[in-house]
Amino acid sequence: MRPAARRRRGCLSFGSPFGLVGAILRSAHRVATRLFAQEGDGRIEDRTVDRVQLARTVLGAAATIALILAYNVDPNRWEDAAYGGAAQLIVAPFVLIIAAPLVIIGFIYYAPPHLRPHLRSRLRAPLKAVGWYVLTLVVMGGILVPTALTVDADDGKSWWEYVLLVASLIVIVWGFPFFFMASLYSARSAFNSAQVHPMLPPVLTLTLVWVFAAFSLIGDGMPGGPPIAQFCSTLGGPLSVTAVSLWELRRMRTRFGVTLRS
């Protein structure tokens, strides 16, 4: 009998550069989903809503590109749009940390008195997610800032400088992808707020999108182009997100029997 042929290790094996990068990204993704995408039993899985949200995102991106091509003559428009999207992704969790407590307090106050203790008892999951996010920032800053301030490439390094360099390398290689995914999942799940009430994520999404619209209008002003293009560029995104969120809330009420006071 012929001996079994040895399996060749592909380019995505752990020993290859691509395989190592994939392993790092999978590890960061696994931890990020475990901490920031665990929405518990309160989350209502509705594939129709997911498809509509995806379609809105794609159409919104296409509309943004069309408006940029048609009316924006700035040669750096693509770079500005990319930086703006990345900045919103990073800033979104911080806006939620500030705004979400006010929304949740109002949400609990609006609930019937006999339900308020139950809702307050379920705040542990969002608070835990916020704590992990803040801890991530503290650890990353506590490693990178001392490394940048104390480690000098020209002088001889002591043992603690080597420890800082190794820790900084771990933060850059694993911590940055983890922080990006944590920001993405935190913004999407609103720090696991569905564990308090299924309607909290769309309500917080409404708050978040209008806060960003106000910041964009105050910081950048009205975009170029005719009035209809200015209206679509400034209010098209928030209005479309609002429409989808209100439709999601109505669908929860009519299809699943979930209301703000239940």
Automatic annotation (TrEMBL):
Question: What are the TM regions of this chain, as residue ranges?
Answer: 54-73, 85-110, 130-150, 162-187, 199-222, 228-247
The question of whether Membrane is a record keyword is answered with: yes
Reply yes or no: does the keyword Transmembrane helix apply.
yes
The residue stretches assigned to a coiled coil in this entry are: none
Keywords, ordered alphabetically: Membrane, Transmembrane, Transmembrane helix
Quote the protein name from its UniProt record. Answer: Integral membrane protein
Tell me what organism the protein belongs to: Streptomyces javensis
